[in-house]
Amino acid sequence: MAPRANWKGFLRLSLVTCPVALYPATSDTEKVSFNQINRKTGHRIKYLKVDAETGDEVTSEDIVKGYKVDTDTYIEVTKDELDDIALDSTHTIEIDEFVPKTDIDSRYLIRPYYLVPDGKVGHDAFAVIRETIRSMDKVAIGRVVLTNREHIIALEPLESGLMGTLLRYPYEVRSEKDYFDDIQDVKLTKDMLDLAKHIVEKKSGTFEPELFEDHYETALIDLINKKRAGAPIAAKVTPKSSGNVINLMDALKKSLASEKDVAPAAKVAKGKKPKKRVEGQREMLLPIAGKGGKTTTAKEAAPKEASRKADKPVRTAARAKKAG
Prior knowledge:
By secondary structure, the protein is α+β, with helices and mostly antiparallel strands. It is built from eight helices and eleven strands. Helix 4 packs parallel to helix 6. The two termini are 25 Å apart.
């Protein structure tokens, strides 16, 4: 099922306007999530909204927003009052200026969206705006209202569409001086820097996110599947740290030596194209211990699993493509 648009409205560059839809470019729905349950009954935990003083449950119609100004003192703000200060740009992304992409500090980036024409009309105007931005090799800066708040959005061409990245306001970005002032100014020898550069060169490559693996997500899937299959869960052995302070020069030399040892294997692996993984492949190939010590795969056990509604298969997509 195609994702639902987060926002629909118009994209405007001066007098050129076209209807557009804004879709989230990222998703966390594929990650494993947990519900809280009662250990004694196995039932899911339900949260109630209660008055902090009386402990009585409060209905939705009696709940309003309040800004805390002092202990137990709040300024009440109603929905109608918030609607009254809603901005005119609620249904329009107004392009205010064009800036070089290098001017945007990465600390101001929040999250990416895909911007596409909405409906059959407006594709010409959308293409004009997209190609104008592309030809100037700049990023368009506009404003968009999401969840009642105005956000700054940076628009740039991405294939046949536009990618919009929400930006933070200056007051949301902390100054690095609050953290970096206490860093000591140390002098490094040329030999140290040369060794470090050699290590970087050995580890240099191209950015290939499809090769990333979310190791924690993989471990979660393995844990859940083992528990479903009734397999024993081995306790993790934590390696002991020597705690010894290693000479920096010695550490650099050892690091370079270890990189040389793994370099040939890394080159072979890099030359191979990653195999295309099938959705749910990990689960289908997972061995499940049966009665009498017989081992079957989840694929073979699927008919039996389908007959038990309470024992649903764990959603396990190919996760090696996901960064942690």
